[in-house]
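Q: For a teaching session next week I want to show students how multiple molecules come together into a single three-dimensional assembly. I've collected the sequence lines for a complex. Could you give me the predicted structure tokens for the whole thing so I can convert them for display?
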Amino acid sequence: MRLHPLTSLAAAGSTAVITTAAAYLPLSLAVIAAAAGLAAWAGTFRRLLPAAAAILVPLCLSLLVLHGLFFPEGITVLGEWGPARVTSEGLSFAVQRAAQLSAAVLALLVFSFSVSVPDLVAALSAKGVHGRFAFVLASTLTLLPAITSRLERIRQAQEARGLVIRRGILARAAAFRLQAVPLVSVLVEDAATRAAALDARGFGSTGPRTSYREVPDRPWEQMLRIVLLLAAAAAVAARLLQAGT
Amino acid sequence: MESNTVLGAGIRSFAFHEDDAPVLRDVHLSFEPGTLTAILGPSGSGKTTLGRLLAGWLPPGPGGRLQGCLSLSGTTLQFQGAADDPRINPAQWGRRVGFVPQDASAILSTVRAIVAEELAFGLENAGTDRPAMKAAVERTAVLLGLRGLLDRHPDTLSGGQLRRLAIGCAVIAEPDVLIMDEPFASLDAAGTDELTHLLGPLLRRGTAVVILSQAVEETLLAAERWMVLDGGTLTASGTPAELCASPGLLPAGIRRARINRLGTHRDFRAKLKPKPSHPAQASAPVLELRDVAFGYTDKAAKGRKARAATGGSAGDGPQQVLRGVDLELMPGEIVAVTGPNGAGKSTFLRHLNGLLRPTSGTVLVHGEDISRRPVGEVAAAVGLLFQHPRHQLFERTAAREVRFGLDRRFGGSEAAARTGAALADVGLSAHEDAHPAELPASRQRLLALATVLARRPAVLALDEPTVALDGDGLSLLDAAVRNAAAAGAAVVLVTHDVPYARSVADRLLTLDGGRLAPL
Ligand SMILES: Nc1ncnc2c1ncn2[C@@H]1O[C@H](COP(=O)(O)OP(=O)(O)OP(=O)(O)O)[C@@H](O)[C@H]1O
Ligand SMILES: [Mg+2]
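A: Of course. Below is the structure for the complete assembly, covering every listed component.
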């Protein structure tokens, strides 16, 4: 069964908020495991991994350096180089923070890789997001695939004219230099032609509109979304109270 | 203008930029409900500009400077080319006037994921309720042969399928006026028939249909009126019979396409020297395909089990497009390939230089298997003209476009010479500095052709090279193809223009059911 996109958005969002607010290592680890499991189940794990690595590796490394090496409250010293001291307290704090952050990021990533963008756009417009804003939203959400397909076309055109691109990420990155300028100009042109078509087909009009795509929204999902949002709010409130005392 | 007019225009002048020479001058026309009008003109005569202006896609003011008037169902707007001119509301205009742009992909909203939603997009914005929308989508899909494609992403359609979708998007809202810019381009015979059959009910319902074309298609013979646009102004107008009777009224650039579907000879053929009979047996084939099979994998369905649960009806297996294509091509040989829309012709051509790789079977160029070689290397021997010029062109000027990659391969002076020669071959010497995207469609096609010709490949693979070309463009293309073949290149050309294919090719093949067979 497929969830309403707003329900999965609420679930991912509140999970991220709650793990961040709770700052409790076992919870963070459980969320990480659950996110990985969900991604594997949905078959998005292999696409998700590089994106997760790109975001999380640098962040976690900097956390480790920051807290692992410079943690003033640290007592148990494991090693010392000048001003930098590796303390076990510092390390465990860094690990906690990294787990917390990874949990939040993974929850959101699992959502963004599994959501059907057309469903999300339709759901938002059913909730009354209309006109220019709907377009900006829809085109932002579809921007990445649009850019990739344009880039792919330009690359094919160049290869068909003798640009040799070897396999592998490095070779592609090197060739990207030749594709960047055409990509920008083609996106600008696209935007201009698209504006004419969208205007003429009534996308900017303000009257009532309907949606062809049906995104079923079951009553219990609406309840669930409210519960999730309340839980997130409660977690934040609890955290603030705790910090206050 | 008579009261019966649904759409009318009195254009004294229209220019894109303040101080440019006008693109349109003294064009006065009006369309009555239930009539079919053809506006004929050679390439560059201003048809597309006129069509976009009439359809509200080129709003005077932001789009350019219009002096004159436009009127829609009794309301007339006067334009002086000044700042306080009235503004067209494209949404309201578009509800009355449907438009099929020359580049079919330009009508796509690009924010809808499947063909059915793209068809419904205009209805959604007008607030049509869902049952009515579903019925309209179903009806339009049946009329245009889109039934089996409703769940596909618009980006994965073939050229002809995309044209059908664009026509569907325009007619689904039942506009009072329907303007179509070169709607026959890229359509197979069935598509042309469907379009013709579509017109009957539209006209009976009172729609005014306007077709802009540079070719006299069979369908247009049934029009109430032909108007001739040449050099941005109306030069003649009358019934088809009147205009056909006095040939002087139709400019030479206007083609008489597909009127006689079988075995016409083009007049310019006689001017060219007969092709030397090439020693096919003596030499080895330049290009060989052995039992090539290929199917597109459905990316969206891959790894997304959840979709199946919601009843997305897209099948899981790859869609088999080629099922065992065999071909041997000798130097100097010209082979034409035809076949219905979506048969896999473009897919087949993309295999020749390795842009697509067969799932089984081999492609050999100069006797060597290309499966391990990068596309860029194979491209030295195989030049591919894409079906859509916009897929081929990416540079800022025509000259840079042709020259891309030549410097690296041949060095500066040779590259410059080849660029000049190729541009001259396609009649674009005067447009070196033009921006490719701003050239009219026919010149874009010729420019794309020049980028292929400049490399003098051993194999020319041309995907619908005749589309968008007027008579003059066609003779340039024809000469280029014959000269290349005479110089020893092998040519594969995909086209729906069977008469042209017969006139130029040594062999005529058809691709249907995933296999090539003699026609
Ligand atoms: N990227 C893609 N993904 C999935 N299916 C595709 C893709 N590109 C093309 N197809 C499908 O493969 C089939 C063959 O397409 P192709 O473009 O080769 O047809 P064609 O013979 O060139 O048609 P036309 O005469 O309309 O140009 C069509 O059904 C098309 O919809
Ligand atoms: Mg094609």
